Amino acid sequence: MAGVCDPPGATPLTKYWRLECEAGRMMWSCRTVLFALLLAIGVFGAASARAQAGVVGATLSTCVARIAPGDSPRTMFARPDRFDCTTPQTAYARGDYWVLSGPLPAATDGSRPIRVRQASVWQDRLAVYALAADGRITGVANDQVGISRHVRLGAVVEHRFAPSTAPIVRLLWRIDGASNLRGIVVGPRIASDVDSIRSDLLFAAFYAAFIGLVGGLLIYNLALWNVLRHDFQLAYCGVLGCLLFYALSSSGALAWMLPSVENNRRILLNYVVLCWGMSAALTFCAHFFETRILEGWPQRLIAVTSWTFGVLGVLFMAVGAFAITPLDRLYSLVMFASPAIVLAVLWRAWQRQSRFLWLFLISWISPFAMLAVRSSYNLGLVPWSFWIDNSTLVAMAIETLVASMAIAHRILMLSRERDEAVRQEAISRELADTDPLTGLLNRRAFLARAIPADGPRTLMLFDIDHFKQVNDTIGHDGGDEVLRLFARTLRYYALPGVLVARMGGEEFALLGEEGAMPDPELMLASVRAERLPFDLRITSSIGICHGPLADENDWKRLYRLADQALFQAKTAGRDRAGRAPSAIAA
């Protein structure tokens, strides 16, 4: 059924017409996506702001002591003088430690349970003890699986203590096998049951929004890649896929889905997907710009860094459980260097005036700013913060929203470039196939479209009578005008499906099915009646033949018979049509 993108007639530019119309449709689609994404940014931003309430409870001060033989929770509660309260936790090496909290804030109702919350870090065993005002000590000890079962959304390890006879006044942690990459007990807080539930609900909304957003964009970009096949689309799908796994793992949702997973293995998965996500992001960077932009050292630099992240991910999988400290240091250094590498690439893109530079900057400025801050934190250059520790998802949420608009605009620009190339190709093809004077098909294009034909065809050869006298009378410019007017007459009487061509000089041809061919007597009369410059009158002669046209030999036979009929018409006095015997019989 004909639609709005169907051209008004069959021309050599039909394909371009349709592409131009589809480009218009794509532009409207991009505007619709833009509006939807802007709406999503507002909703997601509101959800993100609300999720900040997930950092709940009162902050606790802590002091550290190394574990010594004979230590017990009771003796450590009784000996606060053994603890160092001034040295930063990150100054200690890997090992086994006691961590004592300061006195807990006075509660309005000491009989209510408390939630002890801390960031999830790399450690082999974790025990938490609570000291009540009456001297009673309660506690819980966990191996790595046990730690995983206490992980809440936001990758917060939480333990619940319910006072029995007296309020809880102090807390003690025993950490065995602490890697101390970021601290021994990081971000300790106490909260109420209501605070914990509210935090889980808000983080559930935050992570669900993020996973839904990334999942939808992954499907959208995979569908676009399946049609357009641009390399940067596939790389971006890799980024989105890694983000999905990272969101499940880093949020703590994976621990809820797989309660038997070891917490350290969940942390290892964070490293792996971040390494592979960075590799995919750098690959996206390499393919997002025009090919000429990053030729030479920028392309090699990105390739080396991308491969480094890929190999790091494999190393984390293979030996991360035994060599987490050196691997984490190498990972942090490469992460810290990545923004500088990208800046060098952007400098090259600016120097070579890439048209896509501003698109890349708008979409990726947030993740790379996060990367710089997060790498500084990993290297101990800035102190721990809950939102620095969880900044990856926030920054990548902004990136996915903005980058989707940038990619849509990038695809629109590529589509326009493609359409312009198709238009130029169509124009070039039409110029190559068209006689420049009359606008009719030339002999080469005529034969290319005529052979082979499905079924017999009728060929009409036209020749303007005494054309040399026309040139001698009104000059060659006047003769050219006569040829254009004669071509207009042929085009007027040719029905759709009939080929019209200038075969050379003053010879023209019509070819089509017999029922579609015009009446030769009517055409002769129209030529006679045509008013020419200086009131000149002309006539023409026609040779007609009917026969098969399956190959080159059929064409030669058909043309020879039609030419003979044309010669007979001229011999008989011109201004008439001669009809040859059917080539089928010949």
Number of helices: 16
Physical arrangement of strands within the biggest beta sheet = 1-10-4-8-7
Structural class per helix/strand content?
A: alpha+beta
Tell me the helix content.
Answer: 40-55%
Question: Got a strand count?
Answer: 15
User: Biggest β-sheet, characterized?
Assistant: 5 strands, antiparallel
- What is the CATH third-level topology name of the largest domain? Rhopdopsin 7-helix transmembrane proteins
User: What is the level-2 CATH architecture name of the largest domain?
Assistant: Up-down Bundle
- CATH top level class name of the largest domain: Mainly Alpha
pLDDT < 50 runs, ≥5 residues: 1-54
Mean pLDDT over all positions: 82
Strand content: 5-15%
User: Number of folding domains?
Assistant: 3
Q: How would you sum up the global shape? A: rod-shaped
Q: Nearest-angstrom radius of gyration? A: 41 Å
End-to-end C-alpha gap: 43 Å
Question: How would you characterize the overall build of this protein?
Answer:
The relative contact order is 0.08. The chain has helices at 14-51, 73-78, 144-149, 193-228, 231-250, 253-257, 263-288, 297-319, 324-351, 357-378, 386-389, 391-433, 443-450, 467-493, 520-529, 552-571, and strands spanning 58-59, 62-66, 95-101, 114-119, 125-132, 137-142, 151-152, 156-161, 168-178, 189-191, 457-464, 499-504, 507-512, 540-547, 577-579. With 586 residues, it is an alpha+beta fold. It folds into 3 domains: 14-55 and 197-424, Rhopdopsin 7-helix transmembrane proteins; 58-191, Immunoglobulin-like (Sandwich), CATH 2.60.40.2380; 443-579, Alpha-Beta Plaits, CATH 3.30.70. The radius of gyration is 41 Å and the shape is rod-shaped. The protein is built from 16 helices and 15 strands. The strands form 3 sheets. The chain has a 5-stranded antiparallel sheet.
